[in-house]
Amino acid sequence: MSSVNAITGKDSLPTIANVKVGELATGQALTAPLFSFIGEDSAAPSVYIQANVHGAEVQGNAVIHQLMTLLKDYTVLGDIHCVPLANPLGINQKSGEFTLGRFDPITGVNWNREYYDHGIDIAQWFNEHQHLADKELFSAFRHHLLNSCQQRLLNPWGISTGHRLAVTLQHMAHDADIVLDLHTGPKSAKHLYCPEYDAESATFFSIPFSLIIPNEFGGAMDEAAFYPWWQLTEFASTQGRNFDVPVAAFTLELASQERIDMADAKTDALGILAYLSHRGVIKESVSPAKMKRWGCYLKDYKKFHAPKAGLVEYCAKPGEPLAAGETLVTLLRLEQYGSDEAMTSVSLPIDCVPVLHFASASVHQGTELYKVMTNVFSIS
Ligand SMILES: [Zn+2]
Fold first, then answer.
1. Is the pTM for the entire model greater than 0.70?
2. Which of 64, 140, 311, 342 has its CB 3.0 to 4.6 Å from that of 84, i.e. a possible disulfide?
3. 309-319 pLDDT, tens digit each
4. How far is the CA of 184 from the centre of ligand 1 (A)?
5. What is the distance in A from the centroid of ligand 1 to the CA of 246?
């Protein structure tokens, strides 16, 4: 980190640093900005928020701006670290007017599947540290995760560009008790990825749809942040020691990519503030937005792939329920013009809520056209 400057003027102001996340071929450092609010109460939970790991998913940067603006009027108890523009390579991966930035262009790996699996032997670690009181136990475990990231970055064989970025971000995230990773879908309704053990937290954000995900690690930031702690909590309980999972982590999908909406960003910043208020990160009480919230388990979150190639009219609007048999998409086949096969309507056999769809109107056979929630239930 470098160039720390304090902004002067009002209460609850952040410091600024630049975190080096890599180097360009021409030698310049790739950096991400880090804004830190230092809380008044060291016992309050600390927070790490990042945005824009996927290049086209820019709305989270606007949400961080609105959150930082709102925080000026609140008493910050726990430290809050914000990293907008977390992937400086991704947002610069342009092709014509579009931003690519979903996959590392060198390896093809999704930028959000590069986080590090520490491969901890939880039983051994716990047995060696179980004499510690809870607070010291958590501190030792956090130290283990931080040290594991540092060792990974120093791997004598080197690590890939995308993994270096991810582990550098993950190191900052492991220092926090609450981790929020801000993304968007392609064309999408707002939705939250929420671990099963923490499902109640979904009622605080200004987000109508929640995917309740299993307590597993699949390479994404949210999982990287909560999974080791969930493992520790589960193992401890088998040894007769019970505590709540000490770290919470969520991925917020804030509508569509290639979109900045400042008013909507304020709505989502207030939702985040409501959660932070609930967790005691800020002193003042902020109520969650009164709205209907819906959930579904990840196993019921279905992908619909194009049955054939063609040009697509996306008829179902993200976030609006679609009954079985109603038109999901209309497909045009140019070589069939003049016949009944030129235009076909496709529907699904069961009721669902479409959450997001592909961004382009021309698709190959097999393209993932929609993701839809099925077996939807009310969560507030
Ligand atoms: Zn994303």
1. yes
2. 64
3. 999 999 999 99
4. 5
5. 25
